[in-house]
Amino acid sequence: MKLSNNTLKDLPETIKRPDYDRSKLTPGIVHIGLGNFHRAHQSWYLHRLMQKGLAHDWAIVGAGVRPYDEEMRQKMAAQDYLTTLIELDPAGSSAEVVGAMIDYVPVEEGNGALIERMAQPEIRIVALTVTEGGYFIDPATKGFDATHPDIVHDAANPWRPRTAFGAMVAALKLRRDRGVGPFTGQSCDNLQGNGAVLRQTVVSLARLSDPELAEWIDTNCTFPNAMVDCIVPATGPKELELAQEFGIEDAVPVTHENFRQWVIEDDFCAGRPDWDKAGATFSDDVHRYETMKIRILNGGHQVISNPGDLLSVETISGCMEHPLIAALFEKVEREEIMPHVAPVPEFTPQTYVALIKKRFSNPKIVDTTRRVAFDGSSRHPGFLVPSIRACLDRGMAVEGLALVEALWARYCLGTREDGSVIAPNDPFWTDLTTLAAEAREVPERWLTMRHIYGDLGDDARFATPFTRWLGVIHAEGVEAALRAYLA
Questions:
Q1: Is the pLDDT at 140 greater than 80, yes or no?
Q2: If both were cysteines, with which of 206, 208, 275, 380 could 214 make a disulfide (CB 3.0 to 4.6 Å apart)?
Q3: Where are the transmembrane segments (predicted)?
Q4: Which residues sit opposite 2 in a β-bridge?
Q5: Helix (H) or strand (E) segment spanning residue 291
Q6: 8-284 and 287-486 agree in CATH topology
Q7: Are 115 and 64 in contact (CB under 8 A)?
Q8: Are 190 and 228 within 8 A, CB to CB?
């Protein structure tokens, strides 16, 4: 049955669906970046509030700023912006139709429609999921990268921006000039201090063309930090087939695990939904939650995805079934990551590692090693380098993390152990493959990437084991290196 408002009542009884009247919902949030994660996470929390009779004036308007977003808009519009969420649990799968999104801004050059929509008084939150590498951060300084061509364009053409951030700046100028007031900018990406990063990007971009507006934004807008968590695989033929098995024809279904977490700093200048009534946590200590999740879960993903893909293990659950990769995960987490993570009210580091091991091992979640290994040039410095530095600061060895970085260098050669080719899997793949080839002869070349490693290449406590492990990998292979480390 094709998914739409008209067919909701005819869906099989086992499928949860909106109990509220979607025709009476009014918008409160524009969300830029309508990928799977948003629809399985933030949209779900809002939907659950709506099921309780709450937040009916906070419905989501989707948006995108790239040409490929238009394809998603058309698919969503054809099914009244409904999404089928399929929960994949070893005990059994279930489906739910989420209806918190009610519109999607047309995607057009110059983003005029998006700017005008964000300038409307009823929009009180502009949220984003644009990936951790999408915030125009200078990798060397961690400050704003004003030299990026898209930023240069937006600074010179503030009314015809290319970026989401340029559109936000233009909309905020309209709101200020019309006396509408500010909105909250809410990042939902895997970045430590994601709200602070979003503030830096928006204010810095505004300052390039209108310093007075930048000051107004910095003074009046809020950018709460948040930690988000849910494993959400990409959608392909298998996921489309799953939806059909539930009796639903959905062009863009989403699969997800049986776990969600959202910890949010309560800093909203124009109001917010009561997400805590749907299971989210408002906290003044988001950083501690972020550190636990980013280092143990996101760092753990990077620990296993490179050796997994190199050994032609296709999925994360497959990695946890592989005796050497699973043992690598356990040992690195226990000895070099977990000791530097503080507890949070819900979890100790030990119980959190056990939870992550269980989540990674879920065979129903077909999360590919390739997807998880994507964009290592953003993920390694964000998810693993902080643990390396924490170990060194405490005088601890980094044998495991040095091996993990050597495995990434080997991965970036672009071939698996069986000789098959790894398709480009990083925005800077060409640069990485060039360095990886050089590092095959001179391992230290890999550590010259200051924007990733900083001064770690000069620290023998890290550089020496990295060099040794990369030599073992090239001379004896990935499995031999894993066995040597685990021995």
A1: no
A2: 206
A3: none
A4: 249
A5: helix 286-292
A6: no
A7: no
A8: yes
How does pLDDT run across 352-374, given as a tens digit for each residue?
999 999 999 999 998 999 999 99
DSSP string, 357-425: HHHHT-TT---BHHHHHTTHHHHHHHHTHHHHHHHHHTT---HHHHHHHHHHHHHTTSB-TTS-B----
Contact indicator for 265, 186 with CB cutoff of 8 Å: no
Examine the pLDDT at 139 and tell me if it is beyond 80: no
How far apart are alpha carbons 303 and 423 in whole angstroms?
A: 20
Q: In angstroms, rounded to a whole number, what is the distance separating the alpha carbons of residues 41 and 329? A: 26
- Ranges of each domain in the chain: 8-284, 287-486
Spell out where 134-220 has E strands: 184-187
Q: What is the pLDDT of residue 68?
A: 85
Mean pLDDT of all residues in the chain?
A: 96
Residue 67, Cβ density class (10 Å: 0-12 exposed, 13-18 middle, ≥19 buried):
exposed
Q: What is the rounded distance in angstroms from the CA atom of residue 287 to the CA atom of residue 227?
A: 8
- What is 8-284's CATH number? 3.40.50.720
Q: What pLDDT does residue 465 have?
A: 98
* CB atoms closer than 10 angstroms to residue 182: 17
d(CA 357, CA 300): 9
pLDDT in tens, 374-425: 999 999 999 999 999 999 999 999 999 999 999 999 999 999 999 999 999 9
CATH topology of domain 287-486: N-(1-d-carboxylethyl)-l-norvaline Dehydrogenase; domain 2 (1.10.1040)
Helices (H), 210-282: 211-220, 237-245
pLDDT tier at 269 (50, 70, 90 boundaries)? Answer: very high
- Report the distance separating Cα 387 and Cα 394, nearest Å: 11
CA 248/CA 240 separation, integer angstroms: 9
| Of 129-138, 281-290, 377-386, the least confident | 129-138
Cβ count within 10 A of residue 146: 14
pLDDT of 185: 98
Tell me the C-alpha to C-alpha distance, in Å, between residue 103 and each of 48, 60, 390. 18, 7, 45
User: Are the C-beta atoms of residues 328 and 399 closer than 8 Å to each other?
Assistant: no
> Which run of H or of E encompasses 484?
helix 478-486
Dihedral, 103, 108, 110, 113 alpha carbons, nearest 10: -30
